[in-house]
Amino acid sequence: MNRQFAFEAGSDCLPMSVKRKLDRLAIKISREQWLGMSSDEKTSISNLPCNSKNECETFRSFIDDLLAKRGMQATTLTQTVAQLADPPCEVPAEVIESAREIGFSMDQTRWSKLDDDQQYALTKLIDPSKKRKRARALAEFLQD
Prior knowledge:
This protein is mainly alpha-helical. 56% of the residues lie in helices and 3% in strands. The radius of gyration is 16 Å and the shape is globular.
């Protein structure tokens, strides 16, 4: 699915939807690798599904082939990262605290109203260096 959040507009970083697919496979492509891809390649990556076992295998092969053409490969991540591709049902304490740090309130009720992609994005943005993106994401997701 090709989904891009408003807080990602104008960014040349990998979209959260692509990061989530890569996390599901416990692999990472660098920003430089992403920027080196054509817009058609980026669109294909964004649109390729990565849910079932077969879809994940196809997606992984596509990424591997794209990078191999350039003499590169994806970085392998830990299986812990793969587990984070599917956000927990309960709001993580780190998300609550990181939201509070920038003036937002996050609780279980609000967390439950977010879809999986939004929850994933917030778990990826808890890093202190991502404070500005986190603030934009929270403002986007929590608008009533």
